[in-house]
Amino acid sequence: MVLRIKVLRGKLDTITAALAARSDIPYIDMSAGGDEITAVLSAAAGHHSRLVFRQLPATSAITSVSAQTVLHVYADATDWRLDALTETERRELTPDTAPSGPLAGPSPLDRDLADLLRDDARITAAALAARTGHPESTVRRRLAALLRGRALLTHVAVDPRRLERDVDANLYLQVPPAHLDAAGRALAAHRAVHGVVALTGPANLSAAVWLSDLEALHGFITQDLAPLSVTAIETVLVGHAVKRPGSTVA
C-alpha cells in the first residue's frame, strides 16, 4: 500500500521517525516542499487497517492520509540498472544460477543465515560460521545453494547523487484502463525509472524516477510520457529519502 501523508510543518521529523521505526514500512520519502511523506506499507490486511484508519488519523500533526493499494508491480528497485557495465563485466559479476533441483524448506541454519545477512549483507562466511556454530565449508555450500535457488536475494542500495542523478521524483499518473498495462511496461523499461506500480484510486499508475536535473525531468514528462496515453500527472519531488532497503535511517 502506498501512503501519502500530509503533515503540519515542524512535525515532519517526528512523524517520519515514528514511521521509520516500523519494520512493515521499508520506504519513506520526504517531499521537497516539506509537507508530505510518501511511504510504502507492507503488512497483513489487519495491520493496514489499524495504521491507516486508526493510528495515523488520530495523530494531530497529520492533516490527511491517502492510501492506495498496489495492484501490480511492473518494476521495483531491484530491476533498475545504470547500464554502465559491458556485457563481459556483467557476466563476470552475475552469480551462477544454474538450477540445482528444488530446495527443501528453510532449515534452522537458513533462518540464522537470513537473519544475520539482513542486518549486515557484507558479513563474511567465516563470521557467519562463527556466529551460527557451523563449519565454514557448510555455510559456504548452503549460501551457494540458496543463491542458485533464488531463495536468498541480494540488492545494492544506490545513492543516485553519486551517479549524477540529482533529481528524485515520484510521479502519479492517470491512464485509461485500456492503456494501463502498456504504459506500465514501457515505464518499467525506461532507464530513468526505478519503480513502477499500478494502484487503486484516481492515480492508477505510479513511477519513481532518478534524473540528472529539472530540465531532464521536464523532458521526461513532455516527451517520454507523451506516447503513453497519460491523461493527468502529479509530480512530487523528493527532498530526502528517509528510509529505503539497505539504507541507514537518518
What's the topology here?
Layout: E1 2-7, H1 12-20, E2 27-31, E3 36-40, H2 45-55, E4 62-68, E5 70-75, H3 87-93, H4 108-119, H5 125-132, H6 136-148, E6 167-174, H7 177-188, E7 193-199, E8 205-211, H8 214-224, E9 232-243
Antiparallel strand pairs: 1-3, 1-4, 2-3, 2-9, 5-7, 6-8, 6-9, 7-8
Helix pairs in contact: 5-6
Return the structural class: alpha+beta
Assigned CATH architecture of the largest domain: 2-Layer Sandwich
Query: So what's the CATH class of the largest domain?
Result: Alpha Beta
Main beta sheet strand tally, sense and closure: 9 strands, antiparallel
Q: Which topology of the largest domain does CATH recognise?
A: Alpha-Beta Plaits
Count of distinct structural domains? 2
Q: Please give the oligomerization state of what you see.
A: single chain
Count of helical regions: 8
- Give the overall shape: globular
**Could you spell the SSE succession in H and E letters?**
EHEEHEEHHHHEHEEHE
The rounded Rg comes to 20 Å
Query: Runs with pLDDT <50, length 5+?
Result: none
